């Protein structure tokens, strides 16, 4: 091969597939600017188009036009495939043609071959242009060869992002590389972090779901993605694996959780900051999920420079952001925290969707709506009118609108889609903020909701959970690919074709399922679950005689029921018996205390699992929390984790009595002052003042 072509091969191999690209998404992006910079930085005197043109076989029409490059690729593969294939200059030139696909010079932006001919100085319709077009099948084969080689290196030279689709096929390969510039790659890694995608996409979030999230993320805001990529986002179809869908999926699957930052040697991890609405909507907090490799780290608030030390805490989250109080400005303009190892970011949005966290118990911002489950919406005043109209069309229970802890925002509580027809109409009507109600687009069938008796605890059992009969979970289906949008649903080996909306769950409880194990899904994905009549063979001791007879649905009035009759009953509890107050406490606390207003302190000891749990579940199946009984008179819970002290009221603030300790209640004082700064409730500040007064008198003695 000629020297100019070989020099370009060497430069392109080092630039895009060198040691610095190991385990990172490899995108062979070459536009006019990149080609000029590579030529200048590496003293390449021959332009890329001329270097490739010198390798074309115009003189022997009976031999392939790319015969010389094809022969080199065959010899390279036969010789052990050492280094990148010798087709890089040709492939880079095809990407250069794809980057020029704009509506100009009398060409449409979809005209790839017109730009391809132009690079070689040929006019469309001529003999030489026709040979160039016919030869592109060999170019497509070389793209596939590059893809195989990258996969074969195990990521040491980069992970492949080479993609195409049925519509483009041959020219889709270079177009897939032309869609994502270097600047886009950094922004896309920030997008993956902001939407809380896990490294290497273990949850197999689909390409179409990523496209939906990216459209939401860019809606109404300039994220500085290139015009070409933004144009592809706007024009990509909602069905089928389009080019942008395939590319996003490959980038997500290969993303290692780090930002694409050459200036930082690609070492910084990235996380999306979550918003927490706590205390029944009275307080906002920031929440950052922890990175396993970084149990402790330090970040600074940009640009003001405040430093926060983060420690891995309960439920795989970081503690340390408690003093960073969410403000209206932060919600509207964003938050960025950066350190040498970690970047955490909140991307501004006018409407925030929240769902109850399974472990924390508070309402936490989330990426997608789950039909049937309850949600909250936090909306800026500028969006309140549109949000009010939107949620008003969902039907079902009344949605409560309340002030938020931050001025200029309002909370909508109880947002839930229980009427499938109304939910579909709401989504189809569209609107500025309808995207927050969009469910996740799935590739696989999934179960959600239902009345679960117990989760599955047997490793490798393949059972997702155990449910009460007649309260089976809902089935979430992937979108149908056929024109009639039907999906073949398989239940226990029986197949039925259903026309379903993938946004609306199918209620399995309408099917009379027998006790035992059931498998449901599609031919490509299914889940197994069990249904049971209950945990007891018969009625538990002391079950009451009054109940609501139930045959599919419960009667509206209680009646006397017999032992064998199906009914919903409650246990008999005489008026003289009062059930103890309980509080949920994390199992990981180092010490915990209950205090009274008059100076009494009771330490809480870890308690073993109750007998009903140990008799039914294996060892190690305990949850992350335990229940603590609260004797009468105790009003505050104070506890310490490895990273901090915390305080929790056990009564409504208005019902907490004023403190009245004696001057010798030093254990009480220690407990209060340990968590003095952990709550801003006025009732708690009264207790802190009382404890400080005791300390002051002791020091004055």
List the helices and strands and how they pair.
Elements: H1 3-17, E1 25-26, H2 32-41, H3 48-53, H4 67-78, H5 88-99, H6 112-119, H7 127-134, H8 136-152, E2 159-160, H9 172-178, H10 182-194, H11 207-218, H12 227-235, H13 243-254, E3 269-272, E4 274-278, E5 283-287, E6 296-302, E7 307-313, E8 317-319, H14 328-333, E9 335-338, E10 342-346, E11 351-356, E12 363-365, E13 375-380, H15 381-392, E14 400-403, E15 409-415, H16 420-429, E16 446-448, E17 452-455, E18 463-468, E19 474-476, E20 486-491, E21 494-499, E22 506-507, E23 516-521, E24 526-532, E25 543-549, E26 559-560, E27 567-571, E28 581-586, E29 591-595, E30 601-603, H17 611-614, E31 625-630, E32 636-640, E33 645-649, H18 666-674, H19 682-699
Parallel strand pairs: 1-2, 3-10, 18-24
Antiparallel strand pairs: 4-5, 4-12, 6-7, 6-9, 7-8, 9-10, 11-12, 11-13, 13-15, 14-15, 16-19, 17-18, 19-22, 20-21, 20-23, 23-24, 25-26, 25-27, 28-31, 29-30, 29-32, 32-33
Helix pairs in contact: 5-6, 5-9, 11-13, 18-19
């Amino acid at each position: 091969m000629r020297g100019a072509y070989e020099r370009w091969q060497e430069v392109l191999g080092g630039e895009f597939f060198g040691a610095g690209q190991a385990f990172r998404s490899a995108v062979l992006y070459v536009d006019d600017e990149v080609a000029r910079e590579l030529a200048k930085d590496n003293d390449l005197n021959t332009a890329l188009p001329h270097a490739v043109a010198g390798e074309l076989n115009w003189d022997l029409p009976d031999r392939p036009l790319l015969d010389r490059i094809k022969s080199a690729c065959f010899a390279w593969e036969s010789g052990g495939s050492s280094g990148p294939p010798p087709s890089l200059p040709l492939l880079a030139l095809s990407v250069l043609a794809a980057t020029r696909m704009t509506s100009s010079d009398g060409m449409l932006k979809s005209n790839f071959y017109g730009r391809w001919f132009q690079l070689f100085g040929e006019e469309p319709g001529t003999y030489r242009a026709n040979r160039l077009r016919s030869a592109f099948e060999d170019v497509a084969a070389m793209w596939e060869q590059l893809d195989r080689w990258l996969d074969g290196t195990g990521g040491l030279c980069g992970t492949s992002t080479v993609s195409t689709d049925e519509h483009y096929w041959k020219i889709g390969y270079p177009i897939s590389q032309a869609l994502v510039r270097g600047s886009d790659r950094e922004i896309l890694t920030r997008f993956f972090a902001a939407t809380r995608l896990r490294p290497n996409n273990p949850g197999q979030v689909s390409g179409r779901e990523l496209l939906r999230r990216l459209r939401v993320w860019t809606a109404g805001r300039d994220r500085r993605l290139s015009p070409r990529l933004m144009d592809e986002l706007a024009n990509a179809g909602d069905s089928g694996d389009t080019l942008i869908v395939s590319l996003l999926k490959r980038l997500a699957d290969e993303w290692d959780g780090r930002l694409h930052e050459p200036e930082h040697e690609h070492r910084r991890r990235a996380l999306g900051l979550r918003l927490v609405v706590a205390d029944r909507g009275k307080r906002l907090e920031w929440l950052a999920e922890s990175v396993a490799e970084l149990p402790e780290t330090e970040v600074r608030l940009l640009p003001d420079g405040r430093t926060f030390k983060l420690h891995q805490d309960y439920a795989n989250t970081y503690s340390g952001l408690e003093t960073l109080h969410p403000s209206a400005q932060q919600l509207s303009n964003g938050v960025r925290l950066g350190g040498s190892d970690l970047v955490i970011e909140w991307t501004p949005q006018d409407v925030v969707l929240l769902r109850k966290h399974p472990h924390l118990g508070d309402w936490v911002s989330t990426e997608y709506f789950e039909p049937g489950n309850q949600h909250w919406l936090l909306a800026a005043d500028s969006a309140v009118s549109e949000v009010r109209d939107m949620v008003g069309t969902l039907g079902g229970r009344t949605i409560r609108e309340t002030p938020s802890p931050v001025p200029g925002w309002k909370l909508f509580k109880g947002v839930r889609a229980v009427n499938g027809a109304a939910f579909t109409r709401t989504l189809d009507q569209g609107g500025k903020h309808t995207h927050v109600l969009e469910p996740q687009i799935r590739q696989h069938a999934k179960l959600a909701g239902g009345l679960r008796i117990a989760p599955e605890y047997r490793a490798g059992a393949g059972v997702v959970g155990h449910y009460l009969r007649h309260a089976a979970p809902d089935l979430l289906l992937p979108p149908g690919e056929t024109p009639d949008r039907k999906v073949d649903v398989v239940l226990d080996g029986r197949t039925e074709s259903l026309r379903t909306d993938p946004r609306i769950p199918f209620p399995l409880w309408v099917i009379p399922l027998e006790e035992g194990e059931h498998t449901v899904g599609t031919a490509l994905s299914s889940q197994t679950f069990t249904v049971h009549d209950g945990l007891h063979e018969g009625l538990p001791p002391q079950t009451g005689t009054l109940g609501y007879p139930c045959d599919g649905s419960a009667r509206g009035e209680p009646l006397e029921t017999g032992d064998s009759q199906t009914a919903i009953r409650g246990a008999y509890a005489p008026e003289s018996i009062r059930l103890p107050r309980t509080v949920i406490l994390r199992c990981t606390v180092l010490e915990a205390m209950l205090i009274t207003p008059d100076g009494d302190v009771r330490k809480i000891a870890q308690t073993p699992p109750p007998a009903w749990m140990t008799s039914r579940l294996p060892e190690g199946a305990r949850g992350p929390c335990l229940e603590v009984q609260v004797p009468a008179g105790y009003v505050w819970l104070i506890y310490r984790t490895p990273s901090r002290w915390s305080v929790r009221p056990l009564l409504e603030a208005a019902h907490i009595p004023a403190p009245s300790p004696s001057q010798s209640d030093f254990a009480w004082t220690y407990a209060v002052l340990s968590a003095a700064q952990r709550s801003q409730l006025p009732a708690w500040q009264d207790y802190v003042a009382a404890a400080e007064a005791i300390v002051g008198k002791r020091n004055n003695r």
